Amino acid sequence: MDPLEYLKNRLEPEQFEKIRAIDNPELHEFLAKYIDLLNPAKVFVCTDSKEDEDYVRRKAIEYGEEKPLAMEGHTVHYDGYYDQARDKARTKILVPKGVEVPFVNTMDREEGLREIHEIMKDIAKGKELFVCFFVLGPKNSIFTIPAVQLTDSAYVAHSEFILYRKGYEEFKRLGREAKFLKFVHSAGELDERKTSKNIDKRRIYIDLEGETVYSANTQYGGNTIGLKKLAFRLTIRRAVQEGWLSEHMFLMRVNGPNGRKTYFTGAYPSMCGKTSTAMIPWENIVGDDLTFIVDMKGEARGANVEKGVFGIIQGVNPEDDPIIWQVLHSPNEIIFSNVLVKDGKPYWNDMGIPIPDEGENHSGKWWKGKKDAEGNEIPPSHKNARFTVSLEAFPNADLEALEAPCGVRIGGMIFGGRDKDTWPPVREAFDWAHGVVTMGAALESETTAATLGKEGVRTFNPMAILDFLSVHIGDYLRNYLEFEKKLRIKPKIFAVNYFLRDENGNWLNHKLDKAVWLKWMELRVHGDVDAIKTPVGYIPKYEDLKKLFKEVLNKDYSREDYEKQFTIRVPEFLAKIERIEKIYRDVGNIPEELFKILEGEKQRLLEAREKYGDYISPFQFE
Ligand SMILES: Nc1nc2c(ncn2[C@@H]2O[C@H](COP(=O)(O)OP(=O)(O)O)[C@@H](O)[C@H]2O)c(=O)[nH]1
Ligand SMILES: C=C(OP(=O)(O)O)C(=O)O
Ligand SMILES: [Mn+2]
């Protein structure tokens, strides 16, 4: 049957008219196919109107996926106890025969499509299906990518309204021109707590060729919010094919001397500090997770893919995160997920104030000391518990930069991860290629609760993107190295490490020290301070940091702290190079330049070791 004809018969007239207003046969076909497959009792089509958004918000509560909290605009949502993080094992890239994507799970495309279509048959039976339109990046700009989401979860649709720019009018405007991404989600059968029941049939399948992502029997945002980490797999591929960058990066403004504004991006794996860095009170946030970077007249211009924050709540406390704290305690539209609730108020781990001994959390009724089926004590909130809120709620958001159709010029790009023993807190690359290879491509980080599985395992995670890398790493890196050639003004590349520890496992830095590293990097972008040349890049001079610690944090920064933090740890660096080189040798199809750069770094380290020994004080290099 003709898709429009089918939709006309299947939808209520009011809903059908909204679809008919978009002149795009590919969209009609897609909608007809999946409405038929999922077989919901009812379909609601969201336009950009306030009424439609209100409808979704109301339904999230009516269907029990969210519960209102005491403060206006606040709700709580729970994911199933075993559905609290990204499921890497059951996330697969569907590849046509002959295509190789190392490091991530792949599956034959035909077979994967068959399986997921079987799982999704009649999966939304008896439920309401929401059809939502959004765009990635600012509207009507070089960055814009339209996307359509089908979901039977009002919570997922509601989250997307908070996190993304509305796209119904864009679809209407673009008509047949719209080259859109497609997301099909169903939470599947729900239990009495309204959480996905059939976790064994949880699947996240990414069809690159059809630019479609299927997600079934899960609710956790990282697995379900189509425009976030699911779209990311698709945009990385587009970027590599088209010669731009789609990155797992925050985007922020660092305020330099005399009102100077410098924009930075930062790529750290999930739970390694993107949101907390972009939220530093005296700087300005543009985005905290995903950035598109394009070349425009020889400049690298960046834009936030999103317009909201799906942030980790654990550890948010009034002292270190005053702005987030304030936002979370004001009547903004916020979805709290997997937190402890008592008398209508949300609580979370390490929030810096006393919290109740009982209430409701992601395990149901909760009391202090409660154990799960595996005998593990259940904390008040899940480690990966989150808050979802629009950037408009933040007094430190740079909303002008957020909506700028040409994005903002990027002055610096930062890479970082959880590294207890190798990288110093901050350093600068010698040049683009050195940074891309030794800081981006060589990134390793300890695993966290953002993904299911063991925590604290040092893992190769180039550009903090490995979980999402939908193309061959060699092609991805080649694109990165090539990108430089399009640039007249090149961003400086930096590496940070907030997670250095001493022999006893104590952190070597305070959470707010990153504010100082940012100011130093800002000065470096403009050549305002000198730096010390080491075998692994430039590091700050003690005097400059001492001054900045005083100015920024009103702290006295001791020579001892500096020396401990910035000691060049030659054996650790060498071991790392060896690990990284082996990984790239084994995988094949890697640009030769990468090996040359790693070899250069190794030689410089060996020479330095000859002269100064294994652990070299930064003062030695001055
Ligand atoms: N020790 C330490 N922990 C940090 C630091 N910055 C952030 N964290 C913690 O790391 C976790 C994840 O941070 P977040 O910024 O949300 O990471 P994202 O997922 O990359 O956005 C939170 O629990 C933070 O409290 C830091 O400088 N030092
Ligand atoms: C949504 C996620 O993002 P991040 O932890 O990077 O904020 C995730 O990893 O599931
Ligand atoms: Mn984050």
From TrEMBL:
GO terms for molecular function: GTP binding; manganese ion binding; phosphoenolpyruvate carboxykinase (GTP) activity. Residues 29-239 form the Phosphoenolpyruvate carboxykinase GTP-utilising N-terminal domain. Catalyzes the conversion of oxaloacetate (OAA) to phosphoenolpyruvate (PEP), the rate-limiting step in the metabolic pathway that produces glucose from lactate and other precursors derived from the citric acid cycle. It is found in: Cytoplasm. Binds 1 Mn(2+) ion per subunit. One of its GO terms (biological process) is response to starvation. Mn(2+) binds at residues 229, 248, 289. The active site is at residue 272. One of its GO terms (cellular component) is cytosol. GTP binds at residues 271-276, 386, 418. Pfam families: PEPCK_GTP, PEPCK_N. Residues 244-604 form the Phosphoenolpyruvate carboxykinase C-terminal P-loop domain. This is Phosphoenolpyruvate carboxykinase [GTP]. It catalyses: oxaloacetate + GTP = phosphoenolpyruvate + GDP + CO2. PANTHER family: PHOSPHOENOLPYRUVATE CARBOXYKINASE (PTHR11561), PHOSPHOENOLPYRUVATE CARBOXYKINASE [GTP]-RELATED (PTHR11561:SF0). Pathway: Carbohydrate biosynthesis; gluconeogenesis. Keywords: Cytoplasm, Decarboxylase, Gluconeogenesis, GTP-binding, Lyase, Manganese, Metal-binding, Nucleotide-binding. It comes from the Archaea.
